[in-house]
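ok trying this again, last paste got cut off
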Amino acid sequence: MSGSVVLHPMTGSAQSGGARDDARAERRTRLLAAASVTLSSLSDVVTPLAARFADRGHELYLVGGSVRDAVLGRLGNDLDFTTDARPDVISEILRGWAPAVWDTGIDFGTVSAQFDDHMVEITTFRSDMYDQVSRNPIVTFGDTLDGDLIRRDFRVNAMAVRLLPDGTQEFCDPLDGMSDLLAGVIDTPSAPENSFNDDPLRMLRGVRFVSQLGFALADRVLDATREMAEQIDRITVERVRVELDKMILGEFPLDGVDLLVESGLADRVLPEIPGMKLTIDEHHQHKDVYQHSLTVLKQAVDLETGDPDLVLRWAALLHDIGKPATRRHEDGGGVSFHHHEVVGAKMVRKRMRALKYPKAIVDEVSQLVFLHLRFHGYGDGRWTDSAVRRYVADAGPLLDRLHKLVRADCTTRNRRRARKLQETYDELELRIAVLKEAEDLDRVRPDLDGNAIMELLGLPPGPLVGEAWRYLKELRLDAGPMSHDDAEAALRAWWAERSAR
């Protein structure tokens, strides 16, 4: 196998040849040694599995993103393998090894299994053909590792590690993906035009890998993506959505979004993002909405306290997409964007529904966009307790995300103004905390439930009960908690006034 390196997992040493220069050879050796140590930690999983394949006369390779991530020191619990064994044989081997095995992908040569904390996918060598109309390949099983690797999307994903039953590992890199990895480049095994004609989703996957890895597209790959961006229309919106989510959740999401726009793909899948690039002239100066939105996204990411937050990140990126549609040049050279949060929320709903996002995500992102300007009515703390309650009630379970979005939306270079905005929001959060301690703000409900309303007013179930319930909820938001007697008295007075109309 050309470009092979024999690794000794217990020592992490490597023997390599043909390196272009000493520095690169040293780094290559260091990365391979680190990968060997990483893979050694999986010996309880991969060595017995390799032995089972060897007993049946077959080879087993860790492959693709699993090898790339092992070299980068970021290997997770999802492990991808390839083998010369046919799918039915893979299934037989796995059923004697893993407690959970399923073959929903067996038509494509893939059998999956759960072993301890690891999700394992093993796929027969493939040599696919594409009709260049859809992205669905005509699956043809292959006989060689080289043939399997060359069909893959990018060279950094076309490396493999042969797993031997004695625990030895052989690094296989016939396409020199390691050089791309060392250079931080995303490039295709063959001409990118051919690769993208076969599967246009690869263009979007390239953007995603830039976001996840912090790499750059090779010039020829970027050029081909620009020329072929319209081919992404062949891909189902569900597959597009998956890649967009992986992009926004990456470690370098700004790089991913910028590339999405620069490549022309955003014009096809999320045109509202490049649509935020507003022309700035000398008479009507304002912030560039696109660059502002990237800054807000970065600051929102910096405020995350746990795993990447899909809803917060999309809301941060899209919070101002209503500005281009609401931009007005005012007398005196000013620019206004009145009600852009309302327009933006509608635009978010329309786009995310078109991409077939789950209803919950559509509702959450659009609600954050709708609410992101509410705080600016707070001024110097002039909100009443009623207004604070409504702020909390309207945000509901999104309150913590709303706090982060509002803080991230402060991008002014005026340090004094920025500090003032943060201090004012600190005060609002403190008022919310005080009210929460005194009241159950997380569940603002009327002081009487539906049954009590029907009994008090002598009403049957129906719209009038809902109307009375909403009146009591508004009263609860305005006045805070009321005693049972006071709530009954208020409801009687409202009903009498309503009946007298």
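PB: full thing came through this time. The chain has 23 helices and 13 strands.
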